[in-house]
Amino acid sequence: MSDFLELAGRRYSCRNFSDKPVEREKLEKCVEAARLAPSGCNAQPWKFVVVVDPKLVSEVAKTTQQLGINDYLSKAKAFLVVLEDHAKLMPRIASLYDSQVFAKGDLGGATLSFCLEAESLGLGTCMAGMFDRAKLSELLDLPLDQRYFLVVAVGYPAREREEARPKLRKPFNEIVRFI
Amino acid sequence: MSDFLELAGRRYSCRNFSDKPVEREKLEKCVEAARLAPSGCNAQPWKFVVVVDPKLVSEVAKTTQQLGINDYLSKAKAFLVVLEDHAKLMPRIASLYDSQVFAKGDLGGATLSFCLEAESLGLGTCMAGMFDRAKLSELLDLPLDQRYFLVVAVGYPAREREEARPKLRKPFNEIVRFI
To answer: How many angstroms separate the Cα of B57 from the Cα of each of B17, B81, B113, B132?
Structure first.
């Protein structure tokens, strides 16, 4: 594999999903990529719920639309719900730091791995960080105090890749210095 | 690019670096991969310092060894220091959430992207989350209240890949359910 940079540049936040259903086998590969992600003390502070039932997918989409935004998520064909789990750190580290000190960063890596594998399989993804947690807990039969990280909408892109929005990023020299 | 899953499975935390120097061009590609990572509101709440001066690399290694651990980081040939920057969120979101609500997760994705590009270029990486922040600020001429995320040690692996430690992860069915 020599073209990770190409994949990193190609993946974008898809905001226009087609009607084509998403194969369960592909979703499993995406979760597998997330499962392999690194984490502090290898604690793997994550659990995932993959929502594929069409009615439930529709309900999950609604939990992201409370601010009157994210209309396009109604067209998602599946959702990955990323749960933050308790992180069991090594004893020497656990005696100095909160158990969850590395969790958010670890979850960020695992979630991006899911999205990168999706991209490599031709699927579009969009992460959504704002949603009605109480409603989502009710839908997924999870405790009201469940810690959430993000939900990720999944589907096939409706448009050709070349029509995807350009990737806007700060210039290289603005964000890095070599010393 | 069809083998992201292979790359995700291959990348591991390298704890045995060779004496071979690391090319600046490769480090720049790794930073480019991080630069392209997604972030909440596309805020890109990151800055990077790449430490390549041998004397400074050695000093940075020492900041990670305060607990009597991380001896192997003395053999790193470069360090990526990942800084958490202020995240400028969209106004509607900024009115409801703390500016840094998504930052740690975003930094996790950007840092993993750096490591995945390194792996694809034959470089080994190891993330270290514990280090003497005051000392690092002094070494890098950064404010004492600088927010840090992680440092990442970089170098060529001393051993053949097949001798790398096996990747231990929780079983697939333990971390995911489909509904």
So the answer is: 13, 11, 22, 14
